[in-house]
Amino acid sequence: MASTRLHRLEKEDLKVLRYKETEDIDARFSEVERTVTAWRQVLPTANQVARQEFNNRLRISLIHHDAALEGEVLSYSEIKAAVDPTIISDPSLIPSYDEIRRFDDACNFAAEQAANKKKPFKLDTIRELYSILAPEEKAKGLPFRKENPLHRLYYHDIAAPEKILPAMRKLGEWIDEPATKDLHVIEKVATLHSRFMAIFPWAKESGRTIRIASNQLLQEGGYPIAIIHSIDRQRYYEALRGDHIALTSLYLEAVQTTAETELRVYEEAQKAPPKRRSKKSITG
Asked: Would you state the pLDDT for residue 16?
């Protein structure tokens, strides 16, 4: 049953759209803007129950697909048990559940920060997200890696340990530049993602950290979150080896997919016949 629900979540709720990397990027931006505009118009009057259910399923899907990018396979039931406090968990599974909960907590923190317009996104925001994902490193002061990992999932070139600190400072300066703030949010997210992963400051959680940070920026800009699908894992790894253009394509695709999927959920909710009240509830 759980695998069936997860399969449905992947195939229907987050339909993967495929575009060539040689696409007309300007045309794709325009197409995504039309979809997101329609999405924004529907949100204020959307069925709140349907919206909450969609957001819950979206979060589970995000956790599932992000774990796949890190080489981990998580089932719907595992994720549900980890994030739902009403479910009694098997003590032997607590370590993996704790990792899922930290990811969930970091996503919640990002959403809260995105809604706080008085607190701008800075390099410290990324460090805060990392501290949630890696609490054991927080007590140490969130140190950068001291060596190049011998075994890692990502195979793009990364900064030498001694170059991480100056590279992070430069990234922080780029984030604060007026020109950066004027970029389209999806281009800004893709560029930030590309630059950060080229530094790869922490041996663990660097990928998760920047993907959550990217979604924070999207939400802050009034866009739906982006989920890089597990099917696109190799494409994502390849995109990290080049400039931000390939990542921009991935983000355009992911943002549009989320918006279209949510719109489809609300359309189906409107078509559904209203539930009839029981005779008892009418008479009291």
From this structure: 38
